[in-house]
Amino acid sequence: MQITLERSKCIGCGACASICSDVFRMAHDGKSSLKDTELSDLQKIETEIACPKEAVEICPVKCIKVK
Ligand code: SF4
């Protein structure tokens, strides 16, 4: 499963890190970041962890994609 996070759109609500802390963390700039990934406007990782699907549903600005 590929996770894409468009950090440029993130409003820093913290919901994804709260519901899926194995994949998301809140970075020092106040936006979400994929764990163990260099900060950039667009981040991608491959993972078998399932909870990013829940994060897609709750993100208020729809900046998380899963495929
Ligand atoms: S749920 Fe969306 S807006 Fe909220 S911190 Fe996560 S990526 Fe950012």
From TrEMBL:
Coiled coil: none annotated. GO terms for molecular function: electron transfer activity; iron ion binding; iron-sulfur cluster binding. Residues 1-29 form the 4Fe-4S ferredoxin-type domain. Gene3D superfamilies: 3.30.70.20. Keywords: Electron transport, Iron, Iron-sulfur, Metal-binding, Transport. InterPro entries: 3Fe4S_ferredoxin, 4Fe4S_Fe-S-bd, Fe-S_cluster_ET. Pfam families: Fer4_15. Ferredoxins are iron-sulfur proteins that transfer electrons in a wide variety of metabolic reactions. This is Ferredoxin.
